[in-house]
Amino acid sequence: MELEQLVGEARERELRPMPARERVVAGLFALVCLLGAAAIAVLVPSNRSFHPLVLVGLAAVWLVARRVSFEVGSIEMWPDQLVFVPTLFIAPLPLVPLLALGVCLLSRLPDFLRRRMHPDRWLYPIGDCIQPVATVTALAVLAPGPVSSRHIPAYVAVLAVEYAVGVVRDVVADRALGVQLPDAVRAAIHAYRIDAVLAPVALAVAAVGQHEPAAVLAVLPLMWLLRVFSNERRDRIAAALELNQAYRGTVMVLSDVVEAEDDYTASHCRSVVELTAAVAKELDLDQSTRQELEIAALLHDVGKIAIPNEILNKPAKLTEEEFDLMKTHTLEGQALLDRVGGRLAKVGRIVRSCHERWDGRGYPDQLAGEQIPVAARIVFACDAYSAMTTDRPYRRAMSPEAALEELRRNSGTQFEPRVVGALESIIERDASVAAPHSYTDALRAVLAGSAPPALELSS
């Protein structure tokens, strides 16, 4: 999924109570953090003296850092590495997880009070402390003393542990929300690059701060600069989400136009959407390709609004001239979507190629094999199956078995063999998937940004 889309879903999700599965995952992380912090407080020996004012000062700067957030997919990151790393070398190690727990809870308090986050999500700030717990544990084992260049390999190992725990936590949390594994891993790795970049600076601050704790205040100007970048990025994401919503609305309008123009085309498009979604799942395509494919399947015949109704609804075989005119619907569809621009222009290139043959004898560009976009290859085969199994004024529908046999006969010439194989497996396993039902209504709900919670598209 696009990172902006994941950000939008995360923003909406924060305003709602947690579903049962998400609550279980968040609760487990919170429990691990609390048990880990308690164990460290008891088992890890204190390696330096306790100064209450220093701890208060560190907590205050840490709170400032936690109010500067960067949204990366469904993950929220903070530049608190700049304070956390110095804290490891200034405060007593057994107290660091407890200090982190207090900071994480207090930093979320304004969001709860301003209703930017549902109160039911109080478990998340506790779960955020799983990284401090892991980091303190690793540091206590590998290099518990003051900052020293001799311990650089140990510090790298400690940071690796911190990032690995963070990535695992975020991936597990995303999977509980239904995010696909590749998308979850990509977002987590992308997010933790922020911490990786800040770590050397934080270690340099720690080297000075262990002798003069007030040196940690030097990160405040950098925090201000990062906050400016954070606000600008947040505004750009909001603008991208607004534009994406406009694209979704355009798709719905175009779909409504197709339905109003020709009942057969509308029903046929719904059937093709259902089939292409099933084939995409069978072929294990990535989420971004699936989204483009589903919209292309819904709009693959949108160019037919430029074809005269007497040709579209002719109760007999088309003449050569009429068929030549009919073939222009792919170009008309691309032209229409090009005028919309943005992501729909990319879908328009798929729509243009939805009648290209595997052997290069299709139209309009005579593309062959891998030259044809994979989404167009899938739509082409599903389009043909749907057309063959649907009644038309000039012929009766073929049986699913006969339509599959026709696809097999033309596999390797008209259709890509891999797509035919996937479609065959799907139909033989469950023939009902070829019948249009609630899928397109659900897709339209997703385009409108209000998908039913119980429905999982392309899962």
Descriptive account of the structure:
There is one protein chain. The chain has 459 residues and is mainly α. The chain contains 21 helices and two strands. The chain has two domains: 3-240, Orthogonal Bundle (Arp2/3 complex 21 kDa subunit ARPC3); 262-447, Hypothetical protein af1432, CATH 1.10.3210.10. It has helices at 3-14, 20-43, 52-66, 81-90, 96-113, 123-127, 130-142, 152-176, 181-191, 193-209, 220-261, 263-282, 287-299, 309-312, 320-327, 329-340, 343-352, 374-388, 400-409, 417-429, 438-447; strands spanning 70-72, 75-77. A hairpin with a 2-residue loop joins strand 1 (70-72) and strand 2. The chain is elongated. The two termini are 13 Å apart.
List keywords for this structure.
459 residues; mainly alpha; Arp2/3 complex 21 kDa subunit ARPC3; Hypothetical protein af1432; 2 domains; two-stranded antiparallel sheet
Question: Topology of this structure?
Answer:
Elements: H1 3-14, H2 20-43, H3 52-66, E1 70-72, E2 75-77, H4 81-90, H5 96-113, H6 123-127, H7 130-142, H8 152-176, H9 181-191, H10 193-209, H11 220-261, H12 263-282, H13 287-299, H14 309-312, H15 320-327, H16 329-340, H17 343-352, H18 374-388, H19 400-409, H20 417-429, H21 438-447
Antiparallel strand pairs: 1-2
Helix pairs in contact: 1-11, 2-7, 2-8, 3-4, 3-5, 4-10, 7-8, 8-9, 11-12, 12-13, 12-18, 12-20, 13-17, 13-18, 16-17, 18-19, 19-20
